[in-house]
Amino acid sequence: MLSVQNISFTVESKKLLKDISFQVSDGEFVAVLGPNGAGKSTLLKHLSGQTSLQQGEVIWENQHIHQRKSIELAKKRAVLTQHTQVAFDFSVESVVLMGRYPHFDSIPGKTDIEAIKSSLEMTEMSSYTDRNIQTLSGGEQQRTHISRVLAQVFEKEKMISGAKLLLLDEPLNNLDIRHQHNILQLSAEYSQQGNIVLAVLHDINLAAMYASKILLMKKGEILAFGEPEEVLTEELLSACYDFPAKVSTHPFHQIPQVHFGCPVNTESRKRESDSSPNTVDCGLSSVD
Q1: Nearest to residue 48, comparing CAs of 13, 7, 87?
Q2: Cβ-contact 208, 193 below 8 angstroms
Q3: Helix (H) or strand (E) holding 22
Q4: pLDDT in tens, 41-98
């Protein structure tokens, strides 16, 4: 279990996180949602141990995560940061191998090689093994880095050393629709094996489809935390994003489907266009 207790974080008199508390059980996939500046990435940095705590605690497996040895933590917790750049001309295989560094001293073993092969297969990057990462598209580079973090927490005999923690900050960046679904499906399956996955996402409908829990944030605070049906309501979403939201049911799955914007009215739109061509009144002033 991952337990976050009363985390607050201030930078230059600006409070980026305000008394954040929640718990995630093994086997859960949590999507962290919210507008820009909500504190989503800052929260993940606290959960990964990248940012020192000012106030509060992060407890994983009954231990303070910031007090665990780095090498021990790296074997069980992998982090995909929002911006990952490789400055040198490494091959795709070399980049993915970096995820295995905590697991061997000098020469990768059989399990490390298997981890690389397996993670590349999962992200459909097997045919890119020898390619220079600098020559890849943005989506292909993103899939390479996702392969790296999957390789880091790979275990041949699943759950032999307990639950793993996978933290993904905007993993869908630069991915096309099919690969977005594939990565989220992989994340859901990984959590269902008894691990914990937290992912910062912007696509609310994809979060509703794959995540078991939604953490909705705004201005450094938690607005709601729970199952998608509980959190993805018109009232909460409109308040969170300061934009009108309508929630229906997905045509193929019994899950919430979110639509943003004003109801279309041809006549009123024509009048608005005639009076002010660049302005549409969605009633935003009433949403806060």
Answers
A1: 7
A2: no
A3: strand 14-24
A4: 999 999 988 888 999 999 999 999 888 888 989 999 999 998 777 767 899 999 999 9
* CA triple 69-142-133, angle to 5 deg: 95
Q: From its phi and psi, is residue 97 left (phi > 0), alpha (psi between -120 and 50) or beta?
A: alpha
* Secondary structure (H, E, C), 112-171: HHHHHHHHHHHCCCHHHCCCEHHHCCHHHHHHHHHHHHHHHCCCCCCCCCCCCEEEEECC
Collect all residues with Cβ–Cβ distance below 8 Å to 233 and sequence separation of at least 6. 247
To which residue do tokens 């933290």 refer?
Answer: 167
pLDDT tens track for 245-273? 999 998 888 899 999 987 766 555 555 55
Confidence (pLDDT) at 253: 85
Nearest Cα residue to 211 out of 198, 202, 221: 198
